[in-house]
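pinning this so it doesn't scroll away 📌
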Amino acid sequence: MKLFIIIGAINALLSVGLGAFGAHALEGRVEAKYLDTWNTAVQYQMFHATGILIIGILMGNLPATGLLSWAGWLMLVGIIFFSGSLYILSLTGISVLGAITPIGGVAFLAAWVCLIIAAMKVL
């Protein structure tokens, strides 16, 4: 589906930009642990941006299944909650945001389960 290819590409673009920002603008300005947290957010955003791109390609080449759509949306939700909370935590130091991060992690896991089930049904 074209939409997921666009969403995935936008997130990959953002991940590269945010990674560069962290490496150049945050180094020496935030504690090392927060720079590591920032890098974790960037890494997971890129992993799941790639996953969303793959889902978009699969949707264009496989029989329709709602599971692929669910997987794509869940990956996007995961990026927002997981990576987003880590970005904000890194910049603000507000540790309560760490309570939001697992919601994104669960969304990532659910997305991958949807993709596995879709593959088992279609392939």
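📌 and the second one:
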Amino acid sequence: MKKETVFIVDDEPMHAQMMEDHLKGKYPQFDIYKYTTGEECNDNMDKNPGIVILDYHLDAVNKSARNGLQVLEHLKKAYDTDVIMISGQDKIDVAVECMRAGAYDYVVKNETSFHRTETAIERLFKHRAVVHELDKYKRNNRILTWGIIGIIALTIVLTAMGVL
């Protein structure tokens, strides 16, 4: 498995630390950075995270901080990164809103959230592999299509010249 840069954006330091510990145990090759606000996350996007684990509520400490949905919307517009939302909110409409805004998955903070985040990451890796394979097939299809067009064009020209 390749090296991956992961951001954990959560204003609950205990939860963020436990998430980091869990992920480091499962994925020792991950470079993990923790931030308490979306603004800090945004300021460090030059580290090119492949995955951002983003809390829905980010204003427990800093009341003026953007909420997770606002951060998600910004990240999806400005960067090519996958976002897994985490939240204590177990309301379906919140999850749907996050998914519509571009989250890869939505995980409710509870006793299974670390395992569910790990599962979401595994699905994300499989999704990336499928997308990569699809891109290869599309590229090969274009090459074959242009090759066939070239052969047909050459056949027409040679036939018109009386060579064939």
